[in-house]
Amino acid sequence: MIALVPLLVAALFLASSAVVSRIADPQAARRTAVYCASAATALSIVLPPLNRSVFFVTGKQQVAGLTVVALPEGAARLVIVVTCAAGLLVVAMSPLASHPPATMARILQVLAVSSGFVAVRHAAVAVVLWALSAWLVWAGLRRDGGGEGARRGDGLDRLFAVYHVPGVLLFGVGTALAGAGLRVTGTVLVVLAIMIRFAVIPLHSWYPRFVERAPLGVVVAFGTAPLGVLAQLDLSATALSASLAHDVALVGGLTAIVASVFGVLQNNARRALAFLMMSQTGLVACGLGNGSQAAVSGAVLTWEVSALAVSGFAMALAALEARRGTLSLVVPSGNFARTPRLAVAFLLCGLATAGFPLSLGFAGGHLLIHGSVAESPLVWLALIGAVGVNGMTVMRCFFTLFAGSRVHSGERDLVPLETYALTMAIGALLLGGVFPVVP
Amino acid sequence: MSDTVQQFLLLSIVGFPLCAFALMAVFAWQGRRRVERAVSTAVVLAFGLAMASAIALACMMLGGGQRMVTVSVGTWFGTGESEFHLLLVGDRLSLPFAVLTALLSGLIGVFSQRYLHKEPGYLRFYMLLALFGAGVELVALAGALELTFVGWELAGLTSALLIAFFHERRKPVEHGLRAFLTYRACDVGLLAAVVWLHHATGSSTVTGALAGTGVQGDSGWAGFQAPTSTWDAFLIGLPLLWASMGKAAQVPLGGWLPRAMEGPTPSSAVFYGAISVSLGPYLLLRTESVWSGAPAVRIAIVAVGALTAVHATLVGRAQTDIKSTLAYASMTQIGVILAEVGLGLRYLALAHLIAHAALRSAQILRSPSLIHDHHHLEQATGRPLPPTGRYLDRLVPAGTQAWLYRYALERGYFDAWLRDHVVGGLARLVRRAESLDDRWARLLSTGWTPLPHTGARTEPAGLSVAAVTAEGEGRGETTGRGEQES
User: What is the interface pTM, i.e. ipTM, of the complex?
Assistant: First the structure.
């Protein structure tokens, strides 16, 4: 199946990546990337209703043996909008020092791959795109030596490859086996690949180091790519047996609670972020592995929230890091009087991540937990615990990074480009919280 | 017509403060200059209108002989299996509490106009006050336990942010964080109770007067559908008690309350003297129909309340500053109220709750000037004022007095126990597990080549701030106007 709107968006991201990679000035490159991401977001929002009124693609159409639609139906309907909005956040808030034009172009390529995954829903294409996204990130890590916080030769690229090469192979072989009729074996392999991609415990060791050392823009673009979610959604709809789904839910729930506890105890802001993101992916994996409609809807909503709110949270962290240097959570040492908007954006995105009321995260968390009750007491208690502890992590980060000190290093508040992107994201999270669209 | 008016009034009790907050939030995000008077007037007006609505509704209900008014705004979101209903209820329990909340919040708004004049966080204070008021009104009027959770979370967040109001000093920030962590740990109980109630009974909305739902006597306020089995009642009641313990600062979780006095005095008065700590007993009163079928829960509520009352009254006597003393006095009274709730004395508990909130709030507002008055009185009499409470010296044996004094100074050893054995134990376990994981990642990254540590954990590990920061700050951390001192 080919979805035209995501295809158009993917082409736009790809073209802008080519343009951005040729611009020498980092500021101009970022501005161009923001224009492109804004255009992509606008297209993904405007085209579907426009299509309904103009009827350039009505329902499903067959073209040369391929099913063509404007947008995928069902739970994946909003995935492209969320991907574009997260992409906008990433490119608008990536610090210039750690995100030169080449890195910015790579981020746009990863976003193009993510859009491509929504655009073309075919097993073989999924394998290629899965491999491509991992290769793009790996190549960036190899070339940059892991970003500004890393030391050359510390092996981040190697660690990434150790996990993702088997992940891609498992996904490819699993898809091939499932296509050849060995459905159970194939499904197990694909689930393992998804678990690596989701950094589900115990296949997670690459992730904290990746978040700690890679440029955060790349981390967020890679993390918000909907590959794992869509693959698991497809599996849930077709091939996942009840017992395997239950195991996936259990492992997801375990990841959510364990990662949340690890996150709240970190003294390094980036590592806290890593475990927060892991906890979120654990929640999503748990919900998607669950049989109930409410849990699946909650998981998709939680993924959408993760893509927007965690991206906002992470990029606000990146912006603060660019202004202040390495961020420690040992003692409160910030002063939000200097950066009130950045602080508020950080807090709101964090609270939305933790499923705070009046944000979209609340609806996602609510459905996820209610839908998981029938699964097993262990799972829903783990989910409740994870949501609670993630809230603690967010507030701890907020208080330690933005309060507790009279002195400040003269850091400036959000620049207009950052304000624009964060206003969009926070507006979407709050509006979505008041009027949630349940998939 | 009358029904429509009543429904509008009920909605407006929550709506006015929420609108005031939303309006100020939009202006604040845009970075516009605000006039102090406009900010405080908006909030005071919102609470004034909310109070007028609550009083008008109560009068209409009394006049019409109604015991309960409900408003369903529809379903917020959901799938077929699980839906979130927006249901508000006005009855003998919720309306007095709603009036009290609006009245005290409005008065605090008026009081703070001068108290916080030219304070850099003036707008922030009023925004948080408005959001807190809206959250508490939501808890009071919620006809669905999910909606209670929404208000509960809003009240908790604003409370923590106001404790850390003087954000340039480390202690208020640490104490705000500690309060939030305690709240959040206990909120898990409320969430679990909501989910299990829905699962056990198929509904988490109020069903009618308690008399019709199996509770002895006629309490006259709305209740939730009671679970059919005692085991379910126990499984729901216990998390509800846990949730209440956090907000109501009950033993062993109450260490945050005296530290919370680091916030501005007006917010301390309305939050920790009056409304915020009252939310715990209020939740138990509202959900009595759910847990009353489990005698073990009733016993646990009485035990927690009584233990807290004894603990807080002992510790409060060893405090050297007025706000800490008042904080422990609050804990004592809330403990007694909890015991009353557990004993089924629901009207007494409600009256006690309202009277205590009004009195304690006034006492905390008075506390900064009390020190000056005390000094003036001593100067006027020419000698120190005679100590009070000496009769206790005669009642308690000397050996026990020394032990009790140590107990009181160490605040019952609860903080140390939580820090060393609960949070500390968990932190040590996580540190070990993470160390192993880090070694594994390093091995995969570089083979056997040793690398310097990644900085995953510098020192001190664990919740350095969050973790129970009992050391040092325990003694005399606040004064009559502690928040003004560095």
Answer: 0.90
